[in-house]
Write a structure and sequence with these properties.
Blueprint lengths: L2 H16 L1 H9 L21 H6 L13 E7 L7 E6 H18 L6 E4 L7 H13 L2 E3 L6 H11 L3 E4 L1 H13 L11 E5 L5 H11 L2 E8 L4 E7 L6 E3 L4 E6 L13 E7 L10 E7 L1 E2 L11 E2 L4 E2 L4 E3 L2 E3 L1 H8 L5 E12 L2 E10 L7 H16 L4 E5 L14 E2 L2
Parallel strand pairs: 3-4, 3-5, 5-6, 6-7, 18-21, 19-20
Antiparallel strand pairs: 1-2, 7-8, 8-9, 9-14, 10-11, 11-12, 12-15, 13-14, 16-17, 18-19
Helix pairs in contact: 1-2, 4-5, 7-8, 9-10
The chain binds 5'-O-[hydroxy(phenylacetyl)phosphoryl]adenosine.
Length: 410
């Protein structure tokens, strides 16, 4: 049997033996680990969801002896109990290899100085990038998120070449550099490894211009290792997945049936070499599609398109589906606006309304009413519904060092 298939069977067996809740579900589905004879058989396996991890809190998704667990990460408990994922020593090692593989693919090498401005701690971003960059032999600056003045100072003084943080924080850093009158030419920065939230091509263009770098997308989620699940190479041709680590599927989020290659749907991931928290057919809720064709970078295997958004972040306004990233993409096409924005869903005369709050870029001198009507029209053309647009003075909306919160209460 092919190695990868054996790894799949082993992963399924581990989940079956160590997760009573999953064993029950497999029994209900009438399938046992021995029934997995080809990759095609994966479709008969039950899914796993975030709720499974939550309801098993704290150790329900730990498939190893606790003595063998050397680390846990948790995702935030904003919508309920936190989810706990565990790593054995071998897992930490494989994760570092995975992130190093991603960074190499992005063009990072041992001569780079990598400023890790993702949060360190229970969030996987900081430590994930840290171990990966170290494994590659880079010099790591473990500054974590926030403390923006210090970020700029160290970036300049230590000659950072690669910046790793959320795209919204990268944009903020670009803004601060501009305010301080520091031109990107004065820095050694050449590459950005940005992810942990959806971001548009327009946002990419602004970051690239503001920081004078190439900005690449990294994807991951705490339930499946953390950062490193998929990574763009400099061809920006979709995000590469490491086939030794994952089996990837895209399913219809309603029927849960696998979709034909290239069709947009929900990304489902199965881990192949995870001991602490093996995941079988994990429903990520992230919307994407598989990308066809060879990439000129020469790395083979599956690629996914940039994430459109989470199905749970999709707004349904008067019957129309809206992803925040679509709005970002429209706002980003107006040079008069900054790319900071917030969305508020309200009601008027029993109809759902969407308010878009955005900001002027620095130095705007024109007629704000005229700009408002142009942006409103562009939003209506793209989304197919009219929205209430508020354009605020520069700097009005809160900046964050981590993931931007786009949907706000009011
Ligand atoms: O955000 C892990 C990570 C850290 C990824 C650093 C990349 C860089 P969680 O906090 O569990 O883990 O959030 C995972 O964030 O399901 C997506 O909805 C979203 N997400 C992550 N990366 C991207 C990306 C980390 N590149 C959730 N594009 C995922 C769009 C992303 N969305």
């Amino acid at each position: 049997m092919e190695d990868r298939l054996l790894a799949l069977r082993e992963s399924v067996r581990r989940a079956y033996e160590r997760y009573p809740w999953y064993r029950e579900r497999m029994k209900e589905a009438g399938i046992s680990p021995e029934d997995i004879r080809s990759f095609n058989d994966i479709q008969y396996l039950p899914f796993m969801t975030k709720d499974d991890l939550r309801s098993g809190y704290p150790w329900g998704a730990t498939a190893s002896d606790l003595r063998k667990i050397v680390r846990v990460h948790c995702s935030s408990g904003t919508t309920g109990r936190p989810t706990v994922v565990s790593y054995t020593k071998g897992d930490i090692d494989r994760w570092a290899e995975l992130v190093a593989w991603c960074l190499r693919l992005a063009g990072v090498n041992e001569d780079d100085i990598v400023q890790v401005a993702y949060g360190y701690g229970l969030f996987t971003g900081g430590l994930g990038l840290h171990y990966g960059a170290e494994r590659l032999g880079c010099c790591v600056i473990p500054i974590s998120g926030g403390n923006t003045e210090r970020q700029v100072e160290l970036m300049r003084d230590l000659g950072t070449t690669v910046l790793a943080c959320t795209p919204s924080y990268a944009l903020y850093l670009a803004e601060v550099l501009a305010e301080k009158g520091i031109s990107p030419d004065e820095l050694n920065l050449r590459l950005g490894i940005f992810g942990a939230e959806p971001w548009s091509e327009e946002m990419r263009a602004q970051i690239e211009k503001g920081l004078g770098i190439m900005a690449l997308d990294i994807y991951g989620l705490s339930e499946i290792w953390g950062p490193g699940v998929a990574m763009e190479c400099p061809y920006k041709n979709g995000l590469h997945l490491n086939e030794e680590y994952f089996i990837v599927e895209v399913v219809d989020p309603e029927t849960l049936k696998p979709l034909p290659f290239g069709k947009e749907g929900e990304l489902v991931l199965t881990t192949l070499n995870r001991e602490g928290t093996p995941m079988i057919r994990y429903r990520t809720r992230d919307i994407t599609r598989l990308v066809n064709g060879e990439c000129p970078c020469g790395v083979h295997g599956y690629r996914i398109d940039r994430i459109k958004g989470r199905s749970d972040d999709m707004l349904i306004i008067r019957g129309v589906n809206v992803f925040p990233k679509q709005i970002e993409s429209v706002l980003g096409s107006f040079g008069e606006l900054s790319l900071n924005y917030q969305l508020v869903v309200g009601e008027r005369k029993y109809l759902k309304r969407l308010e878009v709050r955005c900001e002027l870029a620095n130095g705007f001198k024109g007629d704000i009413n005229e700009l408002t009507s142009r942006v409103s029209k562009a939003l209506k053309d793209r989304l197919g519904i009219s929205v209430d647009l508020t354009i605020l003075p520069p700097g009005s909306l809160e900046r964050t060092a981590g993931k931007a919160k786009r949907l706000v209460a009011s």
